[in-house]
């Protein structure tokens, strides 16, 4: 892994075609528009009204999006729909070699599918902005942005795209998709499992909350706000996640066992003093 702070090429305004204009793409779009990039989008849902308000050209038909002269095609669909969405893209409509970028929260899966589906002349940049509308609501400064330059020939376009995040002050982390998935299974995935578990327990703020408990309530609220597709994608499309789920269960049982042992010890002591 390497942390970089500057890219040599000067940035330029990009024409970015977004595939999948769900909550995360909408969140990213606001900053890209503010920076002066030109956005177009196509999505399963009709976002014409929202796009008219935001200043994004919306295409009901993805053919038209791919035919437009885009510098970048930004894939923002759910993890689970990625294969289906990519395989249904009319890639023969592309007018010129284009940089494909994805922002999925798992990385080996999109890397493999993009390499399998895209024409050889398309460049591929796999990224994971490791923040969302809650953690990034006051700006992106010092927030982690992971990327792997999977197949890059057009350095200028790639650098200009990375500049979107770098210029907002993100911590730019270049690493392999495999490295990302290993670490994310042991960090982000665990966070989501704990958040979802707390939600199943229906935890609520009380009048005597400790700071620690406030953190748990916040965690619960932030994880359940995200779609279940996203959560299950973190599990189903990251080959390291299953082991981590088992580790959580083993660890929970160990903690429980320690408490039960202590309880038994105390009971035995009480019984022997009574005798
Ligand atoms: N939310 C975050 O904080 C965050 C942070 C980093 C990365 N990401 C990544 O960003 C991507 C989008 O996340 P999200 O939070 O917006 O929610 P999501 O539920 O993961 O994805 C929603 C997007 O997927 C599209 N979609 C879902 N099922 C589809 C299907 N069967 N066919 C076609 N399109 C389908 C939706 O299209 P329509 O809206 O048109 O129905 C929408 O654009 C995910 O890959 C996620 O891992 C999210």
Automatic annotation (TrEMBL):
One function term, GO molecular function aspect: prephenate dehydrogenase (NADP+) activity
Amino-acid biosynthesis found in the keyword field: no
Ranges for domain Prephenate/arogenate dehydrogenase: 14-275
Record key words, sorted: Coiled coil, Oxidoreductase
Position of the signal peptide: none
PROSITE patterns per UniProt: PDH_ADH
One Gene Ontology term from the biological process aspect of the record: tyrosine biosynthetic process
Coiled coil spans: 238-265
TM segment ranges: none
Protein name per UniProt: Prephenate/arogenate dehydrogenase domain-containing protein
């Amino acid at each position: 892994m390497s942390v970089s702070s500057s890219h040599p090429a000067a940035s330029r305004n990009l024409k970015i075609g977004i595939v999948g204009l769900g909550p995360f793409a909408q969140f990213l779009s606001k900053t890209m528009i503010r920076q002066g990039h030109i956005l177009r989008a196509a999505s399963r849902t009709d976002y014409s009204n929202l796009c008219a308000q935001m200043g994004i050209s919306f295409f009901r038909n993805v053919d038209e999006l791919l035919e437009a002269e885009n510098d970048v095609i930004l894939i923002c669909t759910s993890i689970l729909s990625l294969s289906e969405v990519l395989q249904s893209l009319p890639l023969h409509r592309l007018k010129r070699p284009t940089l494909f970028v994805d922002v999925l929260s798992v990385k080996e899966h999109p890397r493999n599918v993009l390499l399998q589906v895209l024409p050889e002349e398309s460049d591929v940049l796999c990224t994971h902005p490791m923040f969302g509308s809650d953690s990034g609501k006051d700006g992106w400064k010092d927030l982690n942005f992971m990327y792997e330059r999977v197949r890059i020939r057009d350095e200028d376009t790639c650098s200009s795209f990375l500049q979107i995040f770098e210029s907002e002050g993100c911590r730019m982390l270049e690493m392999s998709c495999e490295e990302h998935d290993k670490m994310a299974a042991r960090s982000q995935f665990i966070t989501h499992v704990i958040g979802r578990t707390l939600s199943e327990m229906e935890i609520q703020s009380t009048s005597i909350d400790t700071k620690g408990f406030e953190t748990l309530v916040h965690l619960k609220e932030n994880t359940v706000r995200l779609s279940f597709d996203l959560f299950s994608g973190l599990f189903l499309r990251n080959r390291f996640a299953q082991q981590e789920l088992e580790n959580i269960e083993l660890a929970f049982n160990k903690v429980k066992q320690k408490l039960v042992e202590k309880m038994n010890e105390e009971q035995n002591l009480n019984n022997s003093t009574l005798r």
